[in-house]
Amino acid sequence: MRCSPLLKQSTNKVKLRHNAESKDFLWVFVMDQDVGALHGDNHAFHIELRRSLVQLVSSQPGEGQSFSAPAIPIVSVNGSCYMIALSKVFRQPNRQHRVIFPDGTTVMLRVEDIRMQGSLAAFSVNKPGELPNRVRFSEQQVSHNQEVYTVNYERMREPSMLVRGRVTHVGQMSFYHDCTPGSFTDLGSPVFNEQRELVGMCYCNHGVIGAINMIRIAEQLSRIKEGTANMSLSQIVQHLEAANQGN
Questions:
Q1: 30: which residues sit within 8 A by CB, 6+ positions away?
Q2: CA–CA separation, 40 vs 203, rounded Å?
Q3: Residue 72: which residues within 8 A CB-CB, separation 6 or more?
Q4: Is the pLDDT of residue 26 over 50?
Q5: What is the domain range of residue 87?
Q6: What CATH code is carried by the domain that includes residue 78?
Q7: pLDDT in tens, 75-119
Q8: Among 52, 34, 38, which residue's Cα sits nearest to residue 103?
Q9: How many domains does the chain have?
Q10: Quick one: CA dihedral 31, 145, 199, 229, positive or negative?
Q11: Which of 6-10, 49-53, 178-182, 209-213 has the highest mean pLDDT?
């Protein structure tokens, strides 16, 4: 497992901590105050992600505990942002969900607006002003040993860590990779290739991280959105953009 050059060339301190029970060594990242002052080969990628990724905050009314998960914009047009996320984020009853956009705008997400199919959830949120950039996605499936990146948040709103790893196993609808997990990796962290294109979404951690691939995402999204059966993801996005522009 390796950290991206973004981390290696930042001013973050890295400590090696020994876990006596498991006899393993854990890398612990100690973030400096200004995570915006990051440099390295992936600095442009990092800035691009800050303009794209949206944060979900799920909380129980009356309780202080909450957790965060990423949402991935696939359509941003005409004041509306259509996003996908991992469905297990929404499967706990009686929770409230806030959508925090890159510019800090916060919108409450109505449970009745969320559509779920298998591992995938999809929803649309109206937003005044500037919309986040939609992610670019790859039509090519990942291959064994391919270099990939996941994203972690270390403070509210800002994706502050790019974590690099390699694909360790490829299945028909999913793959595994060895990117070091963070606080919400298995809650739907996007997986990107070296071309900054979306290639999957993390859903589990079994020592290595499992991710659904773009075939699975397209298949489940086509079951959520009427009129998109058997469409590729590109075709589904075009369908959604046309529908939103017509509103």
A1: 12, 13, 14, 15
A2: 28
A3: 52, 53, 54, 83, 84, 85, 135, 188, 190, 198, 201
A4: no
A5: 48-126
A6: 2.40.10.10
A7: 999 899 999 999 999 998 889 999 999 888 999 999 999 999 999
A8: 52
A9: 2
A10: negative
A11: 209-213
- The DSSP code sequence of 151-203 is EEESSSS-EEEEEEEEEEEE-SSEEEE-PPP-TTGGGT-EEE-TTS-EEEEEE
Beta bridge partners of 82: 75, 124
Lowest mean pLDDT among 12-16, 129-133, 192-196: 12-16
Residue 134 domain-assigned?
A: no
Residues 6+ apart with CB under 8 A from 87: 116, 117, 118, 119, 120, 121
Place of tokens 């949402």: 71
Tokens 């990939």: give the residue.
148
Beta-strand runs (E) in 31-156: 54-59, 66-77, 80-86, 96-100, 106-109, 115-117, 120-126, 147-153
CA atoms within 13 A on the CB side of 82: 19
CA distance 108 to 100: 9
Beta bridge pairs of residue 77: 80
Regarding pTM above 0.85, the answer is no
Rounded to the nearest angstrom, the gap between the alpha carbon of residue 40 and the centroid of all alpha carbons in its chain is 22
Q: Residues near 33 by Cβ (< 8 Å), separated by ≥ 6?
A: none
Query: What percent of the chain is modeled with pLDDT above 90?
Result: 53
